[in-house]
Amino acid sequence: MDEQTVTRLSVLADKVRLDTLKTLKNMGYGHLGGSFSIAELLAVLYGKQMRIRPQEPQWANRDRLVLSKGHAGPGLYAMLANMGYFDKTMLATLNEGGTNLPSHPDRLKTPGVDATTGSLGQGTSVAAGIATGLRLDKKDNYVYLICGDGELNEGQCWEAFQYLAHFKLNNCIVIIDDNKKQLDGLTVDIMNPFDFQKKMEAFGFYTLKVKGDDIRGIDAAIEELKSVKDQAVCLVLDSIKGQGVPYFETLNDNHSVKFNNDEINQAAEETIVALEKSIKEREQVNV
């Protein structure tokens, strides 16, 4: 990947952070940590890897994305808005009555959302079903399934993984966002997941692991997974909850951030200013 593409995708990831933060601050609360941890991943997928037509969200020949960790919906919405699926002004309606941007993704409401998710674990089965349908229709499209590490406490996930591995459905690229925290604390304390890479390999998956903010690494890993022809595939994303902004990375309770005190609001304002400045500077250099 050339340097200009890396910069373009890096800027796209930070636009996801910027618009997510603005949206959640406006609302007063929301799922920031898990949205930030997949910002680079979303940038690589929507900015380079996925076959999509934002002006034609229901294009039959598109790749699909299933955000099984549906609480990261604000990050996905920010990406979809930046790709042109809908106007950015819609982000300010997040979670309001009658909105087309509910707290968790709804495929019947939001242009660009391919699967309704939020009940943790169920997106894995949905993705397996979509992959099966594409295989039966002899389509070469991919389904990108994003799971949370805490979400994998749900047994349904492992049933779906076993199904994908058994039928060698390598058109479903399983991505585990291993950001190491969930709603109530550290994932290792709540339900130790042990080594995701070894577990997925034991389940029959060809598995790679890459840092969550490594744009080149994420892109190269997906390219490698696409080259696997006779085995289910998985990418473990070694990420940080709140990734990309030191204040939110180290904030103890960063799953759903409440903007209810001066310190958090000041940090948010400073982050918004810094991101806007950094994005502008990189875009000017990258023209």
TrEMBL record:
Keywords: Thiamine pyrophosphate. It comes from the Bacteria. Residues 12-270 form the Transketolase N-terminal domain. The lineage of its organism: Bacteria, Bacillati, Bacillota, Bacilli, Lactobacillales. The keyword Acetylation does not apply. InterPro entries: THDP-binding (IPR029061), Transketolase_N (IPR005474). Gene3D superfamilies: 3.40.50.970. It holds the Pfam family Transketolase_N. Belongs to the transketolase family. Its cofactor is thiamine diphosphate. This is Transketolase.
